[in-house]
């Protein structure tokens, strides 16, 4: 199911009063990495910090079943075109575009998680001076990284998309994200500090 944009409550969340540096474990809370990013984006939106949404996947519906008059069930559908990246939006007047990946591996991120058309899209975003990156979560290690897209592109092209990207490469060229409570994945802090010159 595609939900876009996410349902946003305009009420001031209670969690805004809680400390932000509390350690978060998605496994313990039954929360996926994508869910945590979506919750972070909702936090950024409700607090007027940024407008960032998960991109809807274009789907062509081919066959629909009507078991009841009031209900329709999609029984056959196809992706209309190759998707680009997972998220896009705007932060402090800059276009933001990123992909999110999660793995259970402890030493590398498989390049099979990325596709050539995504790499080309990231190159196009960078050419237009957009801020493009990948959020990578190593669930077994409970570590999350922000990797600027240029380093993914360079590695992908050098390896022709066939090898895994070592964690050491990600640590060398990326930024560790300390997971928190609100927002859960504070990736905009990295952009603020390292790409927009701080406050």
Describe how the helices and strands are arranged.
Layout: H1 26-29, H2 33-46, E1 51-54, E2 59-68, E3 71-79, E4 87-91, E5 94-103, E6 108-110, H3 116-127, E7 131-138, E8 143-148, H4 149-159, E9 164-166, H5 167-173, E10 175-176, H6 188-194
Parallel strand pairs: 5-7
Antiparallel strand pairs: 1-4, 2-3, 4-5, 6-9, 7-8, 8-10
Helix pairs in contact: 3-4
Describe this structure in words.
This protein is of the alpha+beta class and 199 residues long. The protein has a single domain, classed as Trna Endonuclease, Chain: A, domain 1 (3-Layer(aba) Sandwich), CATH 3.40.1350. Helices cover 28% and strands 30% of the residues. It contains six helices and ten strands, in the order H-H-E-E-E-E-E-E-H-E-E-H-E-H-E-H. The chain has helices at residues 26-29, 33-46, 116-127, 149-159, 167-173, 188-194, and strands spanning 51-54, 59-68, 71-79, 87-91, 94-103, 108-110, 131-138, 143-148, 164-166, 175-176. It has a six-stranded mixed sheet with strand order 1-4-5-7-8-10, with helices on both faces. A two-stranded antiparallel sheet has the order 2-3. A two-stranded antiparallel sheet has the order 6-9. Strand 4 (87-91) and strand 5 form a beta hairpin. The longest helix is centred in the first third of the chain and has 14 residues, at 33-46. The termini are far apart.
């Amino acid at each position: 199911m595609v939900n876009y944009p996410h349902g946003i409550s305009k009420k001031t969340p209670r969690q805004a009063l809680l400390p932000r540096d509390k350690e978060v474990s998605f496994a313990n809370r039954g929360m996926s990495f994508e869910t945590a990013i979506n919750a972070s984006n909702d936090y950024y939106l409700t607090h007027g910090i940024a407008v960032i949404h998960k991109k809807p996947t274009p789907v062509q519906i081919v066959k629909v079943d009507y078991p009841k008059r009031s209900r329709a069930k999609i029984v056959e559908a196809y992706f209309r075109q190759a998707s680009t990246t997972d998220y896009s939006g705007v932060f402090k007047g800059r276009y933001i575009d990123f992909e999110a990946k999660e793995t259970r591996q402890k030493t590398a991120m498989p390049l099979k998680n990325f596709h050539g058309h995504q790499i080309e899209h990231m190159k196009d975003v960078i050419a237009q001076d957009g801020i493009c990156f990948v959020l990578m979560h190593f669930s077994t290690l409970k570590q999350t990284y922000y990797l600027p897209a240029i380093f993914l592109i360079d590695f992908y092209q050098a390896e022709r998309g066939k090898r895994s990207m070592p964690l050491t490469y990600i640590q060398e060229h990326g930024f560790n994200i300390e997971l928190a409570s609100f927002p859960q994945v504070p990736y905009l802090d990295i952009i603020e500090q390292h790409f927009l010159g701080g406050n």
